[in-house]
Amino acid sequence: MKSKIIFGPAGRPINYKGPAYKAPEYIANERLSAYEYQSGRGLKISEKSSNILKEESNRHDVLTSIHAPYFINLSSNNEKTINNSVDILFKSAQVGEWMGAYRIVFHPGYHLKKRKDETLNIAKSTINKVLEMIGQSKIKNFTFSPETTGKKSQLGDLNEIIAICKEFDNFEPTIDIAHLYARDNGLIQSKEEYNKIFSTLENELNIKRLHCHFTRIEHDKFGEKRHHTLNEVNYGPSPKYFLESLIECDFKGTVICESPLLDLDALVLKELYESLL
Ligand SMILES: [Zn+2]
After folding, report:
1. Domains of the chain, with CATH numbers?
2. How close is the Cα of 79 to the center of ligand 1, in Å?
3. Which three-class secondary structure state does DSSP give residue 208?
4. Is 249 exposed, middle or buried (0-12, 13-18, 19+ CB in 10 A)?
5. Reduced to 3 states, what is the DSSP secondary structure of residue 72?
6. Are 178 and 212 in contact, with CB atoms under 8 Å apart?
7. How far is the CA of 149 from the centre of ligand 1 (A)?
8. CA 165 / ligand 1 centre spacing (Å)
9. C-alpha span between 19 and 133 (Å, rounded)
10. Taking every pair of C-alpha atoms in the chain, what is the biggest distance, in angstroms?
11. How far does residue 194's CA lie from ligand 1's centre (Å)?
């Protein structure tokens, strides 16, 4: 049986040499149970390879998600960008279904110089266009998962992600802890602050499994700068308080490790988690 909180890498494991779509066996052999397939730079995987990834994930009991391309911007004031983003998100749903991804993770967009609520409304109307396209297609199984983003200029603070997920069916949040930490100037320091984040999520949404990203992160006044490994303790956030709070809040969770050491640090997180039970 799967444990309540499962861990895995954001992308191909560090020392794994094979194709990314065959990684689940390697991941399972490391005793990890999650895998986020990376399409940040474009959806290049074929239907055939996606199907192999689905089979491999099922065979080795690895829960797979997909990270959609970074260049999605649902709140642009440029029609071409909007149409392009609709197209990419639709295609991500298609690829996600082929690979049996339980979440399609994406960064919703940018604030530009608009008022925040206006940005959110543009994003929502763009999402409606994507859902319309899906409704007219053969795609049946998809769960979009907008992610809390790391820069203040990006749409995607905790409340905005909650607002988007509340508005639509088939939407569940991705809570990137490092991004929340970076866009909040590193103020998330104590267990109480994590408790606040998780209880807000519990109160506002009906989450079956909480999908999280974790890494240590460097930031400046604009937010995220770069990711750091778990043993670079000069950078936050603290994995211990995050995991303690996650355990106390009783969520089923998936923690995708985005540190430069990916699967190796996912194992560090898993060991820490097991020591806290
Ligand atoms: Zn992301």
Report:
1. 5-276 (3.20.20.150)
2. 24
3. coil
4. middle
5. coil
6. no
7. 7
8. 16
9. 31
10. 51
11. 20
Quote the ligand 1 centre to 39 CA distance (angstroms): 10
Instruction: Show the tokens assigned to 71.
Output: 């260049």
Ligand 1 centroid to Cα of residue 69, in Å, is 9
Measure 107 CA to ligand 1 centroid, in angstroms: 6
* Span 81-137, pLDDT tens digits: 999 999 999 999 999 999 999 999 999 999 977 677 789 999 999 999 999 999 999
- Assigned token pair, 90: 């639709």
Residue that is written with structure tokens 């925040």 in the block? 116
CB atoms within 5 A of ion ligand 1 belong to 147
- Neighbouring CB atoms inside 10 A of 266's CB total 29
The span from the CA of 73 to the CA of 78, in Å, is 10
Beta-carbon contacts of 214 under 8 Å, excluding residues fewer than 6 positions away, are 176, 177, 178, 239, 242, 255, 256, 257, 258, 259, 269
Highest-confidence segment of 112-126, 181-195, 203-217: 203-217
The one-letter code for the residue type at 216 is R
Q: How far is the CA of 67 from the centre of ligand 1 (A)?
A: 7
**pTM (predicted TM-score):** 0.96
CA 106 to ligand 1 centroid distance, Å: 6
